[in-house]
Amino acid sequence: MAEKKNELKEKLMYKAVNGYDSLSAAEEKKMTAYCEDYKKFLDNGKTERMCVKYCIKLAEEKGFKEYKAGMKLKAGDKVYYNNRGKAIMLAVIGTEKMDKGINLTAAHTDAPRLDLKPNPLYEDGELAYFKTHHYGGIRKYQWLSRTLELYGVVILADGSSVEVNIGADEGDPQFIIEDLLPHLGKASDKEPLNTAVKSEVLNILVGSRPIGKDSEKDRVKLGILKILNEKYGITEEDLISAELEIVPAGKARDIGFDRSLIAAYGHDDRVCAYAELAGLFDAKKFKKTGVCIFADKEEIGSMGVSGMQSQAFEWFIGDLCKGQKVDIRDCFANSFCVSADVTAAYDPNYAEVFEVRNDSKINHGVAFCKYTGHGGKSGASDASAEVVGKLRKIMNDNKVVWQMTQMGKNDQGGGGTVALYMANRNIDTIDAGVPVLSMHAPYETVAKFDCYMTYKCMKAVFES
Ligand code: MN
Ligand code: MN
Q1: Distance from the CA of 267 to the center of ligand 1, in angstroms?
Q2: What is the 215 CA–ligand 1 centroid distance (Å)?
Q3: Which end of the chain offers a freer environment for a tag, N or C, measured as fewer CB atoms within 10 Å?
Q4: CA of 342 to the centre of ligand 1 (A)
């Protein structure tokens, strides 16, 4: 009797399973190797520009060529389109014509950070600082009292470009934002978390050593400008035509005695970007043309020339279509897109904001998200049952461990991805990606198992 009951249960009930229960030794070996490569990608890609650069290096090693307008391509050809050094799209041409549709995966490689303001450098209390403007959704208190690195480009008066890259090498100096000492924090302690640290307090300490005579003003600031000029040829006005980004210092690290997790800056959304890229590299056959996208500006609304709303996407796909005498509208109407972005993993420490029956769990595999948005799904493209069903079938056919997710309890908050911008183009789109603990924090945590399953998901989509 009891046995029969279990059979019925087995047959009818959906059971969420921990991925380790089905992970073979051979798969675990592949998972570990994949995650070592992913950590290298993170350490080489601390900004969107660095991700593009490293992506091109990897792609060229795999035989990808830079795409030029009107290039003649045939099945199996591999090309990439570098959008201003800040976003990139890679394509492997399929055997089928593009009016039958293409398989897209779209992730973003920008991450929450602190950007320098156009006039950043100032001196106060005989200390020199950079003013910043936060980029994306951050909890400001998390950025205090931790070491920071600086990356970016400065366009000099003559139009030439200088790359700045400070903090990662062992011998490099780093930067810091000071916090208030508890001894004097009595008033601040009573303020709500979201107002206790104001954005205008996120000033980066960059030096303290004065130069010249003590009768002169701003001697510490001048000392910093002298160093910048000697090292990079920069003057203060050059900082106006610059994009300089402050990011948390440190490399990606294994977490836990069992090393099953990885903590790093920028898992959102480099963990999915790398999964797409590796999936594109490793896919065995391309019936449909496969396109992998690293978008910029997702954290601030996907605007601008390098964001997912940019016509740069139509330019690249349109030009590929033109080469096959295909109307881009026919291509879009028949295409399938995985908006590859991270999701919030259930965190038992903050159980009150999660909905345990529907939120994703660590080690339960790649997480599909039917809808994002805020209160009442507002702003979500809300994938159809057919689209969810299609991805589910691809995963089950390819033995990829997957789970369903959403973002916490209703009305607790919300989020968005590039999914709606793809869906608005008449492309069937669904979100799928890696569950993340403490998303948007300077250090986020993911599970190796979920990283690996997301890679397998992307690979299977390209092969479908
Ligand atoms: Mn994201
Ligand atoms: Mn994000």
Answers
A1: 9
A2: 51
A3: N
A4: 5
**Cα distance between residue 38 and residue 24, in whole Å:** 21
State the burial class of residue 379 (Cβ atoms within 10 Å of its Cβ: 0-12, 13-18, 19+). middle
Residue linked to tokens 């972005």: 341
Tell me, what's the pLDDT at 3? Answer: 56
**Between vectors from CA 425 to CA 423 and to CA 428, what angle results, nearest 5°?**
40
Looking at 287-358, which runs of residues are DSSP E strands? 290-295, 336-340, 343-344
**Per-position DSSP letters for 427-462, written without gaps between them:** -EEEEEE-EEBSTTSSSEEEEHHHHHHHHHHHHHHH
Closest ligand relative to 138 C-alpha:
2
Name the H helices within 76-156. Answer: none
How many helical (H) and strand (E) elements, i.e. helices and strands, does the chain have?
12, 23
H/E element holding 326? none
Closest CA to 107 of 416, 344, 339: 339
Which residue type does 446 have? V
The β-bridge partners of 291 are 91, 104
* Cα–Cα distance, 197 to 10 (Å, whole number): 52
Say if residues 86 and 50 touch (Cβ distance below 8 Å): no
Q: CB–CB of 88/274 below 8 Å?
A: no
pLDDT digits 0-9 by tens, 375-402:
899 999 999 999 999 999 999 999 999 9
Ligand 2 centroid to residue 206 C-alpha, Å = 28
How high is the pLDDT of residue 401? 98
State pLDDT tens for residues 414-425: 889 999 999 999
Strands 336-340 and 103-108: parallel
For residue 299, the ligand closest to its alpha carbon is 2
Q: What are phi and psi of 456, to 5 degrees?
A: -65, -35
In residues, how long is the chain?
Answer: 464
Q: Quick one: pLDDT band at residue 4, thresholds 50, 70, 90?
A: low
Instruction: Find the 299 Cα to ligand 1 centroid distance in Å.
Output: 7
